[in-house]
Amino acid sequence: MSTAQLLANDPVWLTIVKVIAIFAFLVVMTLFMIWWERRVVARMQHRPGPNRVGPFGLLQSLADGLKLAFKEDIRPVLADRWVYFLAPVISTIPAFTAFSVIPLGGEVSIFGHHTALQLADLPVGVLVVLACSSLGVYGIVLSGWSSGSPYPLLGALRSAAQVISYEIAMGMSIVAVVLYSHSLSTSDIVTAQQSGWFVWLLFPSFAVYTISMVGETNRAPFDLPEAESELVGGFHTEYSSLKFALFFLSEYINMVTVSALATTMFLGGWRAPWPLSAVGGGVLNTGWWPLLWFVVKMLIFLFVYIWLRGTLPRYRYDQFMRLGWKVLVPISLVWIVLIVGIRAFKNSPNVSPQQVLIAVGVVVALILAVTFLLPTRPEPEDGRIELTGGGYPVPPIDLKVPQTPPRRRRTGVPGTQRQPAGVTAGEDSSASTASSKEASDGSV
């Protein structure tokens, strides 16, 4: 029986149980991720990290959440009231919704009812995740606009450009997976990886997706919408209390969701890795075991998030846009063309594998030739970067800062009279004596 048929037979109470379980799982993963990130980054920087509240500091995230709930909720005077209130809600709801199509395991028995460890199996499940991640940015944009402050607005504009740029690259990286699995359903993609994971067959797509998911979730080194060194706090500068906590929650849930989608598309989903999948005729791929493998694979991606934050500095904005539009998008386009060509040649009965390899080699050679042989734009001799034509803008060379004028001394106070230029102290004293004599003669 297929996953869609199993889920179609679920009663209402079982669907409600799954909804509550997914909600609890995402909240617990958020609390765990905050603690884990602080501990791992602390270890990288030779610090102890949270170790006071609870065993090994495990309850520190819960304590921070309770502290945020009891903090004063402040709303700026110039803020749009309703939009300011709805923005964090708009960011949080799509983050929870996207996880509903992720398959966490195969067929299991819950209270005597056979079902699949998945809330919904849609024919376009991958597109649902992409759509939810795109809707979440509306909350960021509206929060920056409704705050009535310039720094949140700049962060919102950055986030909009960032999502547009990296959503394109992420969508292109999924095209190759869809071509090989012949479906947009997440459960069908997992089924298509029974003979081998797509991470080995479609490694360029995997690399582009991994980079894009970091940019899509506004995480370091791509956390430009909330760059505290430039924008104070970015789009959530004017938020406090539970509204700020909702933004925090949606960010970590989005990390979990895109990591779960990467596990589904490239790492075989809930299937055990190769040595374990062969044990006992695949017994470790049945029952509740697949949930364990899925969570372990997902934690690997989440560890990469933490690793990048503790290792790489923040990108400059022009470098970030250049990476998205001039590197990831062209690589994805070329890779899609290669995949389509290989599959077309492979399905043709008159083409041999040697001819396919020759054609691929010719295409790669042409791409490399165009990349390295095209003339590059000469740089200015003085090493400056022009204001137009790309690069980080700098002030023009004819912009001169005026010299600071000399400070004027106050008059009317004894001993503070300003001396004329070119007059020495002796000349000044003699001149003052003569002027005093003239004044006295005139008065007489």
Automatic annotation (TrEMBL):
Name the source's superkingdom: Bacteria
Q: Does the keyword Mitochondrion feature in the UniProt annotation?
A: no
> What top-tier enzyme class does this entry carry?
translocase
Q: List, in alphabetical order, the GO biological process terms annotated in this UniProt record.
A: aerobic respiration
- Keyword match Nucleotide-binding: no
| Family from the record | Belongs to the complex I subunit 1 family.
Question: What's the protein called, per UniProt?
Answer: NADH-quinone oxidoreductase subunit H
Organism from which the protein derives: Gandjariella thermophila
